[in-house]
Amino acid sequence: MTKVAFLGPAGTFTEEALWRFVGMGCFEGEVVPLGVGSPGEALDAVRNGDAEFAVVAIENSVDGSVTPTFDALAGNGVQIFQETDIEVMFSILVRPGTKEIRTFATHPVARQQVRGWLAEHLPGVEFVAASSNAAAAQMVAEGRVDAAAAPGRAAELFGLERMADEVADVRGARTRFVVVGRPGVPTRRSGADRTAVVFTLPNKPGSLVGALTEFALRGVDMSRIESRPTRTGLGTYRFHVDLIGHIDDAPIAEALRALYLRCEQLSFLGSWPTLDIVSRTDTDRLAEAAAWVDAAQKGQCLC
Predict the structure, then answer these.
(1) Which of 23, 105, 192, 236 has its CA 20 to 30 A from that of 286?
(2) Cα–Cα distance measured from residue 170 to residue 115, given in angstroms and rounded to the nearest whole number
(3) Secondary structure of the chain as H, E, C letters
(4) Which of 81, 87, 86, 84 is nearest to 180 (CA)?
(5) Cα-Cα-Cα-Cα dihedral of 184, 188, 191, 192, to 10°?
(6) Annotated active-site positions, please?
(7) Which residues, at least 6 apart from 243, have a Cβ–Cβ distance to it below 8 Å?
(8) Beta-carbon neighbour count of residue 203 at 10 Å?
């Protein structure tokens, strides 16, 4: 039995991602979902031993990084092992017989993805933030708000009607989710991988340039970099970096060893396969990645 924490209740996109990971063979034995109230709670469940893994949203193609997840990942005791992404479209849900809509709930990230639809169809509606999209649907069912944007499945779970389907200001918007567990051996190298680290630097001129130079000198490509406050004082930041490659790749390993010498603190967040390989041209790496995807689809790959 494997407990997997996720942003609940049932009916969220995170739950959908969880079951997709199950289909990819990422967990052993029977999976027991554990719904929690935030990405931080999901990761804390892993740290505290209440769950073996957590599934959390990490990035959205419309609204960017899911900052609560990044802040929670900055603590020690967790590691990323796998990723997937899903297309995100919403249903507008109401109680049966609803004639007037004055209040509307959804997760704040989801609100950014339906803002245009709301302006056109529900102008002036009062927004109420929910901890998740499914929690917003539950608020409608309990009579606390009049409507919600949520996955269509939430209508069935909470006995609601769909006022509209396939609502999304940006068609094709996707959210990336990751499987997080306690630190261990990284997922095996696939040839199309992502490595993530988070670090802090001395507050002196050129420290960030020097840190990034360690990647440039070794030809290591960064796919993302951003800063988040350390919450220890004004002007102090953590830097989150995603690298293209695996910790077992010599250039990545050498760059991280050199980076460690420059940092006040450096945390390895994991190396794992990415399915975003369309732009890669190396034939051998494409073949390796295709073989990994085929194995995953057959349930032969464990994270």
Answers:
(1) 23
(2) 10
(3) CEEEEEECCCCCHHHHHHHHHHHCCCCCCCEEEEEECCHHHHHHHHHCCCCCEEEEEEEECCCEECHHHHHHHCCCCCEEEEEEEEECCEEEEECCCCCCCCEEEECHHHHHHHHHHHHHHCCCCEEEECCCHHHHHHHHHCCCCCEEEECCHHHHHHCCEEEEEEECCCCCCEEEEEEEECCCCCCCCCCCEEEEEEEECCCCCCHHHHHHHHHHHCCCCEEEEEEEECCCCCCCEEEEEEEECCCCCHHHHHHHHHHHHHCCEEEEEEEEECCCCCCCCCHHHHHHHHHHHHHHHCCCCCC
(4) 81
(5) -50
(6) 175, 177
(7) 194, 195, 196, 197, 215, 220, 221, 222, 223, 252, 255
(8) 10
In the chain, what is the straight-line distance between the N-terminal and C-terminal CA atoms, in Å? 16
pLDDT digits (tens, 9 = 90+) for 199-253: 999 989 999 999 999 999 999 999 999 999 988 878 789 999 999 999 999 999 9
For residues 293 and 275, the answer to whether their CB atoms sit within 8 Å is yes
Locate tokens 């990044």: which residue?
Answer: 70
Predicted TM-score of the model (pTM): 0.84
Q: Measuring CA to CA, which residue among 186, 223, 210 is closest to residue 261? A: 210
**Are the C-beta atoms of 211 and 259 separated by less than 8 Å?**
yes
User: Sign of torsion, CA 295 296 302 303?
Assistant: positive
Band (3; pLDDT cuts 50, 70, 90)? very high
Whether 43 shows a pLDDT value over 80: the answer reads yes
CA distance 92 to 276: 30
- CA contacts within 13 A on the Cβ side of 87: 9
Contact criterion met (CB below 8 Å) for 218 and 255? yes
Tell how far CA 284 is from the center of its chain. Answer: 29
